[in-house]
Each structure stands twice: as C-alpha cells, then as structure tokens.
C-alpha cells in the first residue's frame, strides 16, 4: 500500500511561521437591542463568567436579563459608538497592526499578528483557522488583559483550547497569562499619566478603576484582586505618589452578589464629599477604551463625582495605540517566543506554504 506524500519537504524545514493572537472581550455588532441580544447571550452563557448552576441561571438569563438588558445596554453603547464601529474593536485592530509593524521590523515577515474577540466577531476559532491556513505552526496567545481573572483570561484560554481541539495537527501554543507587573506596561501607564500632568497640571488625587469580579472568586483562589493591587502599587511607586493620594476601586458590578470592593461609585462619592479639587481617573485594567471606560467612568462616574461635590473630573484614556504600550507588547511577545526558531524562512518554503494554504482554502 502506498501513502500520499507523507513527508512533504516543508514539514522538515526547521522554520516556523509564528502567529501572535490578540484576544479581547468582544462587543456587539451594532448599538441596537437586536445586536446586543446574541452578544449578551453568548457572554452570559459562559461558565467562566457566570458560575451559577445552569438550570437556575438559564431561567434567570431568559426570564429577567435578556428581555430587558439588551435595550438598556444598547442605549449606553449608542453614546460611545463611532462612525467606524465599536471603540474596543477599532482599538484592538489598530493595536494588532502596530504590533505587527514592530515585530515585523525586528523578526521578519514570517511573524503574523491576528486579533479576535472572545464573544462576537471576529471569532477566535475563525482567526486561528485562518492563521493556521496561512502557515502558522506556532501560536502565541496574548489575551489583552494585564491582570489574570478566570472570567477574562481564563475564558480566552478556554476558547483557544476548544478551537485547537478540533484540529488534527494543531499549532504549538504558548500563552501570556498576565502582564500586571511587567515593567514596560507599568512605565507605559506612568508615561501616560505624566503626559496628562504636563498638559493639564497635576491632579489632587489619582483614582485607579479596575473592572470588578464577584468577591467569591477571590476566596476560591482567583489571583485577580492581588494582581490589580500590585499594578496599583507599582504604578503609584513609579509616579512617586504617597498612598493617601491614590485610590484603587472596582467598577462594572453585575447582579446582586457582592463584588470586589471598594465599588468605584462609593469611592467617587467619598472623594466628591471630601471636596477633592482635581481628580485624575484612569482604568489600568483595560488596554483599550470601551463601554466600561468611556460610558461608565468618563460619563457616569464623572456625574457621580461632581454631584457629590467634587471639583474637576479628568479622565485619562486607556493605553490604546500609545507607542510605549505597543513596545511593551512587542517586548513581552518576543520574550515568550524565545526558543522558537525565528530564522527567516527560505523563499521556496514560503512559496510552498502559500500554495498549500491556497489548496486548503479551495478545499474548505
Ligand atoms: C478587564 C477585564 C474584564 C473582566 C475581568 C470582566 C468580568 C466580567 N464582566 C461581566 C459582565 C459584563 N461586562 C461587560 C462589558 C465589558 N467587560 C469588559 C472586561 C472585563 N469583564 C470589557 C472590556 C467590556 C466592554 C465591552 C465593550 O463592548 O466595550 C458587559 C456588557 C455590557 C453591559 O451590558 O453592561 C457585561 C454584561 C461579568 C459578569 C464579569 C465577571 C464575572
Ligand atoms: Fe465585563
Ligand atoms: Fe458597565
């Protein structure tokens, strides 16, 4: 019996095409109730996000959340939507392009950068399949969350593992689990705040607002709370601020259970009542501006602080496309790719791969 070509030459060339995959949370396709419903259904059906036993949660989701929340959330999304779409998606796409530019300059053409959304589009499985078809046999997963939480990074990891499960010959995989204490990330945040001070003068107080998670996840061993506090301390030290001038708080509470405290609403009221004059606010746990930063903090949070008696509310945007942040990502990625052969592939091998990808595309 004869086999089809069992060992095509390119499989034995010691060259790899490496794919860096950025994954962020996801966003609806439009700021409408119709688009919000499938997005929220997918998001809130994730067992990493909602840990309530299924039959009970399924009832709550279908009877109390999906009939009402899509309309309310759509109204909020409408306030931050841009002509090109959701800010979170736009920033993620630009971050991927910039990272590709930086890594390509350093490592050559055979490094690809893809981006996907955990919920909604572009879906993780589709992007991974595309990267594989383009010849990536090594994938570096970079979830776009500096602090690890099971509900964010853990869920992105699950989704990638699920996609690889369906592949007969999956790529090799490495994961950047977190970068909450990465010096270049801390410095990118400090640089952002210093530039804001240079333009607007120093604030009287700095509020660091992180996305919250349910309190019980901390008791069960999720490192998220500790990682947020560590980021906060390192940033405060980098800026040379005393502890009494910095507050760390948690936002975006969902549902009736206790979440990590202090809640940002309470901190904003307290700072307002204390007659803080200039309040600087930044969200270090979000690397891209999104609903939670632009609407919940920069709009709602501002109103809360001012109506409690605060002076001036100064929102500092997320790292988004800042050069020091993209350089931080490139540094992280390069470190995690160590040991992978990054020699430039032979042009003949690239051509073979291109033909193979084309054939695979034609088959699919
Ligand atoms: C920064 C990391 C995030 C963690 C951890 C996280 C946990 C978490 N979130 C919800 C519920 C919702 N979050 C929503 C929006 C949202 N969440 C994050 C990030 C984290 N969430 C981002 C970046 C966004 C914004 C997305 C955008 O399109 O701009 C929403 C949807 C909006 C709404 O209807 O309010 C929900 C719902 C839970 C329950 C949870 C942990 C258990
Ligand atoms: Fe969230
Ligand atoms: Fe929110």
UniProtKB/TrEMBL annotation:
<keyword id="KW-0963">Cytoplasm</keyword>
<feature type="binding site">
    <location>
        <position position="211"/>
    </location>
    <ligand>
        <name>Fe(2+)</name>
    </ligand>
</feature>
<feature type="binding site">
    <location>
        <position position="292"/>
    </location>
    <ligand>
        <name>Fe(2+)</name>
    </ligand>
</feature>
<dbReference type="InterPro" id="IPR033659">
    <property type="entry name" value="Ferrochelatase_N"/>
</dbReference>
<protein>
    <recommendedName>
        <fullName>Ferrochelatase</fullName>
        <ecNumber>4.98.1.1</ecNumber>
    </recommendedName>
</protein>
<dbReference type="Pfam" id="PF00762">
    <property type="entry name" value="Ferrochelatase"/>
</dbReference>
<keyword id="KW-0479">Metal-binding</keyword>
<dbReference type="InterPro" id="IPR019772">
    <property type="entry name" value="Ferrochelatase_AS"/>
</dbReference>
<dbReference type="InterPro" id="IPR001015">
    <property type="entry name" value="Ferrochelatase"/>
</dbReference>
<keyword id="KW-0627">Porphyrin biosynthesis</keyword>
<keyword id="KW-0408">Iron</keyword>
<keyword id="KW-0456">Lyase</keyword>
<comment type="pathway">
    <text>Porphyrin-containing compound metabolism; protoheme biosynthesis; protoheme from protoporphyrin-IX: step 1/1.</text>
</comment>
<keyword id="KW-0350">Heme biosynthesis</keyword>
<comment type="similarity">
    <text>Belongs to the ferrochelatase family.</text>
</comment>
<dbReference type="GO" id="GO:0005737">
    <property type="term" value="C:cytoplasm"/>
</dbReference>
<dbReference type="GO" id="GO:0004325">
    <property type="term" value="F:ferrochelatase activity"/>
</dbReference>
<dbReference type="InterPro" id="IPR033644">
    <property type="entry name" value="Ferrochelatase_C"/>
</dbReference>
<dbReference type="GO" id="GO:0046872">
    <property type="term" value="F:metal ion binding"/>
</dbReference>
<comment type="function">
    <text>Catalyzes the ferrous insertion into protoporphyrin IX.</text>
</comment>
<dbReference type="GO" id="GO:0006783">
    <property type="term" value="P:heme biosynthetic process"/>
</dbReference>
